[in-house]
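Lab manual, section 2.4: Encoding a predicted structure.

Procedure: take the sequence of the chain (61 residues), apply the prediction step described in section 2.3, and record the output as structure tokens. A sample record is shown.
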Amino acid sequence: MGKHKKEKSDKNQDKEVKLVVRIEVGLRDAFIEACQERDTTASREVRRFIRDFLTRSSKEP
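Recorded output:
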């Protein structure tokens, strides 16, 4: 049973990584608050930003 959980954990590690970003506390707090007001999460919005950025970047000459 413990081995199965370990394998599942390893599988998730292959799909996701953490991105550490240094920003000012006030900027982070305002971002978190804005996300909560819009019923979303900071992680979701950062992922959306990255996808949009990559899409726009691939269209630039």
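Check your result against the sample. The chain is about 75% helix and 0% strand.
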